Each structure stands twice: as structure tokens, then as C-alpha cells.
Amino acid sequence: MSEPSSHAAVLSRDLPVEGMHCAGCVQSVETLLRATDGVGDAQVNFGTQRARIEGTATLATLEARLAKGGYRLGDRSTQLPAGIEADAVRAVDGVLEVEATAEGLAVRHVDERHVLAALRALLPEGAALETEADPRARRLDRAERSWRLRFVLAAAIAVFLMVASMTA
User: Fold this and answer.
1) Residue in 85, 75, 74, 77 with CA at minimum distance from that of residue 130
2) CA proximity to 93, closest of 120, 51, 57
3) Rg (Cα) of the chain, in Å, rounded?
4) Beta strands in the chain (DSSP E)
5) pTM, entire model
């Protein structure tokens, strides 16, 4: 484990982690995170799919380390109004992608409160931040549809094999 540097503020972060499929993944994610420069401690909860991280490591560093193991930090989409510099948004730690739209900027970022606070700080006075209500629910719905499709396909193949074996 690496010790956080004395000049940077040590943060406690609670981050969503995607790509964990079993309890063994918890150990892999913890090992990856603890081996990251600037991470003092990492604890992963499979049930909540979240990691609690203590240290000074940036979100970009954590995302890159997790990618080496096939995992990633959970993300969220936020719409910023027109008039905000894209370069200023890209400079926020945790911003993964910025795209110009007719309404302003579409930003994909790590789903973490510090990132949302930094994006709010870029807003002009009185402007609102439009963000996804529940990105985890969206991902779970997508996974549920995928499993439902797999089940229907497997059932169709099973019925076909049963009928084929009866006629043989």
C-alpha cells in the first residue's frame, strides 16, 4: 500500500464499480485499487457494487487502474448549459467525455459527488445542472433485457432439441 502524500488532501470516496460478477471480483478490485499510487486503503462491497477508497489518487488514475483488470468506475450523464468552456469541463477530475450539443455540453463523468460539485462550480449563477436521475437503474434495466433475451433464446433451442429428439 502506498501512503498518501502529505501535501495533498486525503479524500474518502465512495465510488460505483462496474464489471464485478462474483465475490472473487471483490478481491481483484481491492488488489488493483490498493496497488494504485495515492490509495491508502480500499474496501469493496459486492452487494452494493461500490468501493470505498481513502487516499489522494485522482479519479482518472483509479479509472485507468481498474481498466487493467476489466472493471470501470460507474458513470453518469449530465447536461450543462451553453456558454461553459469544454476545456474547463475536461479539466475536472472524473470527466470521461464531453460532447457539444445544441443545448450546451453533454458530459459523461464518474458518478461521484465531488465531480458533480466541481461541475456545479462551473455553472453561471442561477443555471441548473441537468443530470440523470438514476444511472444504476438504467444499467440494471439493460442487463435485465439482455438476460431475458438469453432466456427466450435458450428456451427456444431447448424446445427445438426436445422435439427433434422425440421424432428421431
Assistant:
1) 77
2) 57
3) 21
4) 11-18, 39-45, 50-55, 72-73, 75-81, 95-100, 104-110, 130-131
5) 0.66
Closest CA to 13 of 73, 67, 66: 73
Report how far residue 86's alpha carbon sits from residue 99's, in angstroms, rounded to the nearest whole number. Answer: 8
User: 97 - beta bridge partners?
Assistant: 108
pLDDT tens profile 10-50? 788 999 999 999 989 999 999 999 999 999 999 999 988 99
Q: Which residue has the cell 487493467?
A: 68
Q: Which amino acid is at 93?
A: D
Candidates 56, 58, 57, 60; CA nearest to 9 is: 56
CB atoms within 10 A of CB 109: 24
Residue with C-alpha cell 422435439?
163
Grid coordinates in use for 66? 481498474
